[in-house]
Amino acid sequence: MRNVRETTASARGVADFVRSAGASGASLVQMFEQQVAYAPDAVALRFGDQQLSYAQLNARANRLAHWLTAQGAAPEQLVGIALTRSFEMIASLLAVLKSGAAYLPLDPDYPPRRLEAMLQDAKPLLVLSTHDTGLAASSAAPFFYLDQASVAAALAAQPDDYRLAERAARHAQH
């Protein structure tokens, strides 16, 4: 019974936060970064027996956002996300939004022909995935597998901070 009460209280807290931040006109990324500043060590995500704090999730998303920006992610661009529910999926969603691009959700359980048609139609800049999805690269967009050693090394080399003002200045130059 305690878990139900905690979950309900937590959901109310999140709903109150979203309502107040939404009333201010803040974006999802701005609201997330406000939460990171407010409670960096609080648990942001739980998956099985693993958890990530807001600061850890933000650092992952920031490294990926830097890398995505270097790949050309920007406003008016789509980035495909073909991931199962995981820390990587949430960090990827945040990273795409931080880069200024929009994300194209690609359910790895969809039939391959449907996914290929979606990719042909949307023409994303690239697709983020992992090998465990079983998805093969497409002719419509390059696939980058987050669990591939070279991609993981490139991400690890990125800074773990990503300022919205810096992003806006970079995009204004293009």
Keywords for this entry:
single chain; 174 residues; alpha/beta; 6 strands; globular
Please describe what this structure looks like.
This protein is globular. By secondary structure, it is α/β, with parallel strands linked by helices. The strands form two sheets. Strands 4-3-5-6 form a four-stranded parallel beta sheet, covered by helices on one side. The chain has a two-stranded antiparallel sheet with strand order 1-2. Mean pLDDT is 84; it is low at 1-9. Helix content is 53%, strand content 14%.
Distance N terminus to C terminus? 54 Å
- Secondary structure: helix percent: 40-55%
Beta-strand proportion = 5-15%
**Quaternary:** single chain
What can be said about the biggest beta sheet? 4 strands, parallel
- What order do the helices and strands follow? HHEEHEHEHEEHH
Give the overall shape, derived from the CA principal axes. globular
- Unreliable parts: 1-9
Number of strands: 6
Strand arrangement, major sheet: 4-3-5-6
- Indicate the mean pLDDT: 84
Tally of helical segments: 7
Derived structural class: alpha/beta
From the alpha-carbon coordinates, what is the Rg to the nearest angstrom? Answer: 17 Å
